[in-house]
Amino acid sequence: MDRTDEAGTASDTGTGIEPDGAVLAAIRRHAIAILPDLRPADVVPERTLAELGLNSVDRSEVVTNVMDDLNVFVPITEFRQAMPVGDLVGLFERYR
Amino acid sequence: MTSAGPRVAVTGLGALSPLGPDVPRLTEALRAGRGAIAPTGAGETVPYRAALPDSALHEALASAALPPEATRRTSRPVRASLAVAGQAWRDAGLHHGGPDPRRIGVVVAGSNLNGAQSAAAAARMARDPMLVPPRLALQYQDTDHVATLSEAFGIRGEGLTVGGASASGNLALVQGARLVGWGVLDVCLVIGALAEPAPAELRSFLNLGAMVPTAGTGPGGPFDRSHRGFVHGPAAAAVVLESADSAARRSARVLAELAGCAAGLDANSQPDPTVAGEADVMARALRDAGIGPADVDLVGAHGTGSPLGDRVEADAITQVFGDARPWVNAVKGLAGHALTAAGLLSAVAVVVQLRDGFVHPNPWVRDPIDGVPELAGDTAVTTPLRWAVSNAFGFGGFNSAVVWRAAG
User: Were both Cys, which of B19, B47, B188, B392 would link to B170 (CB 3.0–4.6 Å)?
Assistant: First the structure.
């Protein structure tokens, strides 16, 4: 269950750039800021943020905060419902 | 018509302030006259502050013993409200059960509470509008405190915010006391919310001349000739007001009684307090409680350390109390000025002094201004107290006074 060291491994970034784990770390940090009772180890590439208890406003806040943190701008139309965390990481990596 | 006042019981208290993360530590600091005002250091926008560190907020939340999910999706100011509300809720024994949730209400003191968060969002918007946090739509509104508290404590009665600048705390107590006194509620949670002004908003007080402007000769203090303005001291505080019947039904311990109150306006939009306006609310609050000036043992002054404000309040106290000379102290000399929460912090301070029988010292006073009332000195005065008045005044002519009676 604890896959905290496998940042981005479940996603295919399609860019040929090896992810450095910064995106997953940022998603994790902002998800926990919203739900303080969430554990870092719960935020793994296979799960969706919705499965972790984040509602639509929460998910939108995570995405906005990750964009702000990493200075990566992903068009809102690129985000789909029920994206696993790994796919989110891949999407951010594409625009990094 | 009777002038017996609302006669509402106080059954719970909570406080998170520069003097400590809970009421026991606030009480200890008050009794010792241990202040928290200190120089801020280079690069800060104000020269002095009574700081409220994150560690104090964490401790306050721990003492509130809320379920872990209660702090989900909350801003820092709202977490402070949850902390003091949780402390007061437990202090009142409401965690063991209380009235029908539709008979419990919440009144939150203050407006424009979250300027710091809006300023941070504005900075993000300048980079790209897409970066504005969507939750700001909920969190920039002061009503977020009311809504989050209602969810955390299952409150289903009336809820509202009350704004009146630095008098907001007392005005919220007035509204809470009326809701209970009129029989609309059995229990009203009254919260002095943590105000986090934007850096520019805080600095505007200094540029206006209301704050201690420079490190210079020290922070000074209320009613002393050294006063040069107020020092910011962010805080949150909570009082549970309850009808005597409800408190009796659940055998709640009564800490004190809110026995009378009065509020009024100066018909003046400026930051210019008036002796007539301040004296009027104190006199009317005493009448509302059915007592005279000679009955009052303690006045918890608004006392910000503003030379004009101190002068006007000292004259207003003298006008109302004359030769009665109750003890006077000012919690802002120790904890700084909590802005819209100040009235609630003063209220909590006054209630613990009534409960424990002491008058907190004013240790910064070395050379009192002329005509100053009976200021407590360097050490606490231990004496039984029966009646106390707490004042709160705000820019724009908001005047308010609350009368408290010791329990028993």
Answer: B392
Mutate to test the interface with A, among B117, B131, B140 (most CBs of A within 10 A): B131
Question: Who wins on pLDDT, B187 or A36?
Answer: B187
CA distance to partner chain B, nearest, from residue A64 (Å): 5
Q: Is A96 helix (H, G, I), strand (E, B) or coil?
A: coil
Residues B252-274: pLDDT tens digits?
999 999 999 999 999 999 999 99
Tell me if B72 and A37 make a contact (CB, 8 A cut-off). Answer: yes
Is the Cβ pair B130, A73 closer than 8 Å? yes
Tell me: ipTM over 0.90.
no
pLDDT tens-digit map of B58-104: 999 999 999 988 999 999 999 999 999 999 999 999 999 999 999 99
CB neighbourhood size of A22 (10 A):
18
Ranges of beta strands (E only) in B200-293 are 236-242, 256-265
Nearest alpha carbon to residue B225 among B322, B323, B314? B314
Q: What percent of chain B stands above pLDDT 90? A: 95
**Domains of chain B from N-terminus onward:** 8-249 (3.40.47.10), 258-406 (3.40.47.10)
Residues of chain A found within 8 Å of residue B128, distances taken between Cβ atoms: 73
Assign domain A22-95 one CATH number from 2.40.10.220, 3.90.1170.20, 1.10.1200.10, 3.30.1360.120: 1.10.1200.10
**Which residues in B have their CB inside 8 Å of a CB on A?**
68-69, 71-73, 124, 127-128, 130-135, 138
Nearest-Å Rg of the Cα atoms of chain A is: 12
Q: What is the pLDDT of residues B142-199, one digit of tens each?
A: 999 999 999 999 999 999 999 999 999 999 999 999 999 999 999 999 999 999 999 9
Query: How far apart are the C-alpha atoms of B237 and B190, rounded to whole Å?
Result: 8
